[in-house]
Amino acid sequence: MKPRRIDLSQYEQAAEHEELGLPPLEATVTQVGAHPFRHDLFLLVFLPLLALVLYLLGLWLLPAGWQPVLTEVRHGVADKAFWLAAGVGLFAQIIDGALGMAYGITATTFLLTTGVPPAAASASVHIAEIFTTGFSGISHWRFGNVNKALFKRLLIPGMAGAITGAWIITSVDGDLIKPWISAYLVVMGLYVLSKAFRHIKPNKEPPKHVAALALTGGFVDAVGGGGWGPVVTTSLIGTGQDPRTTIGTVNAAEFFLAIAGGLTFALLIGFTHWQVIAGLVVGGLFAAPFAAWLCTHLHARTLLIMVGVIVTVISSFNLWKALT
What we know:
The protein is mainly alpha-helical. Helix content is 77%, strand content 0%. The chain has helices spanning 12-20, 36-61, 67-78, 80-99, 103-113, 118-142, 148-171, 174-195, 210-224, 228-238, 243-269, 274-285, 288-297, 300-323. Helix 6 packs parallel to helix 12 and helix 9 packs antiparallel against helix 10.
């Protein structure tokens, strides 16, 4: 994962993002300097070596009581679930880095396909999102993109919705709720797809019904594993609100939603599927350069269509499997 640094320049891609109501581009897209894949190559070499050194130091320095923990970590990293989640995290973070949204619904869609239960998939995504949303929120705050009044109106209802959604999804049998989650993701895929064909008209009036929107967004985000950005951000910008401050404020509030949802899941179902969580985080670490490449080679409208089609098709397939 990496902090999102907002590109304030007027490039063609930045103007397209603003027209479609998408988050501003990352600074690395237009930043002059080393090729972004050098950063990725550094991570690919340095992080595994660092992990190996820490593991060997642990074997040498830690008391014997910690040896089972290190053995569990070794087995977890070798587990197929870890590498599947790493691939999912890489792809989802590439999409999120290129569009500034859709991490949750993309990751949850693929996790459900790999057989992860709905509650565990949503919990894993929310815990992994704490890293991305925290860095993103700080970046938006530093660039002056956070509207304090709107932030206060979003925060409490959004957290309440996230906690309620987490409680409900953990109280229902996974096989029963999976068709509903897949159906929700189909709708979200179509919703993302529709954004490619919308034009945002500016509106200076303050947004209405923010509390109800935040409550709904937090609820469906926890139940479906994603949707806070597409639901809340799209709805606010769709009414003509300023894209930059709306996106920055919604991203800042999402950090607290991720914490509320993640803690609720941990309390209700325990800290399960840690391999999936670790895989999502590790996969996301290497995604930024690929997201930058996508931004410079594909139009935002094209990316929206691609993500909308992928989420809709895969979720439809998951829905069909769940019903047959």
